[in-house]
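Page 37, top half.
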Amino acid sequence: MNNRARNRLIGVTVIILGIAAAVFFGSGAGTGAYTKTVDEAANDASLVGKRIKVSGSVIAGSWDKKTNPMKFRIRTEGKTSGPEIAIVYTGAAPNTFGNDTVAIVTGTLESGGTMKADDMITKCPSKYSSGTGAITVTELLKAQAKAQPIQVVGYLKAKSLNLEGQGTERFVLTSTPTGGDEISVQFAGSMPAGTVDGVQLVVGGEYDSTGVVAASSVARLASK
């Protein structure tokens, strides 16, 4: 191999190593942003004062979107008890956030089990329903009996999905992809993966006297 070829090979190798290093450090591996479970973060005193990522399930009823900064609590995914971390989050929460959502938050861990976070993403579960026994939005509006368990299928109205908390409108279902009859839905849980405007949803819950569905479950309609 002549000197020119050897120098060219060395140059290409340096570039490749530089790109690899940028990816490595940019991913957080070189910034101290280690990804930890709640159990790991809560039991490792050496992490206090450091910037880390923590992944955990949002504890039902622990959050209120209207607080600023937003506060909620998480515990290790899949557990119903154990250590908790109180999150004080400054930023916009995803509309898919809710009870039992798996949240991955980045911030500085403080003593006492509190974390000040400025970045959050959510992992939404894939929830599907066949829609068997469900009625349409139009059929529900025509029904006389309310405060009864129901299943209703409809389309997510464009730009209606929001995150306001317990007892407030979460989204609107319509009878057609472009509009038609519509009903409001209250829901504080985690929205299914792939929730986008116009997607067909199957909602289970109670249709109350005010014409609002108080939902206990929301799933995407499975393809036939």
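Page 37, bottom half:
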Amino acid sequence: MDIEPELYELFTDLTAIYLGYGIFLSNTRFEFSQFTNSDTQGWQAQGAGYLPEADMAFATALFMRIKNIPFEYAAEHLKPRLARMLKKAFRQLEGYASEVEALTARVPLPQKA
């Protein structure tokens, strides 16, 4: 299977989440800070990773559902904004219980005609 080179970076993030590093990756995805020194002041923003935060939250929620890890285990370690995103992702996944179950059991879903 040939994978487009521009997708490598996205797959790197997804692989890290699949390996259980979603909380760490999400918490470091976006940092914003204010700085002041003797002659200047300003703001600084930086990002790490390639997936948007909402996508990281959804992928982390999917990983947690597959591994049967409760939301509360991650929520206390996430920034509050990210914990809200994760909670929303958990709610969204409730509508896809059969698909999540298929991933959990590693059984392919029947093909739709």
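Margin note: The chain is about 55% helix and 10% strand.
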